[in-house]
TrEMBL record:
The lineage of its organism: Bacteria, Bacillati, Actinomycetota, Actinomycetes, Kitasatosporales. Residues 13-73 form the HTH iclR-type domain. This is Helix-turn-helix domain-containing protein. PROSITE patterns: HTH_ICLR, ICLR_ED. Pfam families: HTH_IclR, IclR_C. SMART domains: HTH_ICLR (SM00346). SUPFAM superfamilies: GAF domain-like, Winged helix' DNA-binding domain. Residues 67-256 form the IclR-ED domain. It comes from the Bacteria. Keywords: DNA-binding, Transcription, Transcription regulation.
Amino acid sequence: MATAANAGVPTLIGSVQRALRLLEAVGAHVDGAPAKQLAREAGLPLPTAYHLLRTLTHEGYLRRENGVFVFGEAAERLADGGALQNRRTRISRSLAEWRDAIGVPVYFAVYREGEIEIAGVADTPSAPAVEEWADFRETGHAHAIGQCLLSQLDEKAREDHLDRHPVRAVTPYSVRDRRTLLDRLAATERMQPVVERQEYALGTVCAAIPITAGSGAATMAISLPLHQQERLIPAIEQLRGEVGRLLSSLAFSISI
């Protein structure tokens, strides 16, 4: 039963704390370190360190090579997950900054494993993002994000996508057949914005720019109400400038 002295104090598991100290000690040595050195640096008795090192090795967090301990596959997966989370945080922060600077909803999307994926959106109650009333993955031919991503694919990948997600009219302004769409994509100038007006959502205009960081297809996009369409091109050009500066600083990655 908790007493007044320890009320609110979290219950700490000593063995977990000791194992974490060992992992930190291993991480301080690029080429690994022997058990005795790790025990000393972690402030643990050698028998305790041996027991924990065996357990961590059995679970894949460490491996022993030539008498020293180094990180194993399980620890490397944790590190990769942390890096992925950090990239996503940076992307979300960048989207929010551009949204506030330009005053429009900002989208980030990638083409991954044969599908269009909206990887991030930043909007506000006063400038909301476009509602996904028809699946973005299936209607790539009708919105600027999808058209921009499809324009970056090679012919085989583009044809495969359209075989799986046939062109169909989404609104009265949508492209109506595959040939017309392919002609439009072929005429798209490299690195130029892709613009659509009311093709996906009535009363909305959108523009997207290709992102060439890395080997995959990616895009940044914005949307505006139809009555503000005169802002569309200046806003997407402003976004392109912002993205260019961020890419040049190597602070942005599409590998998410």
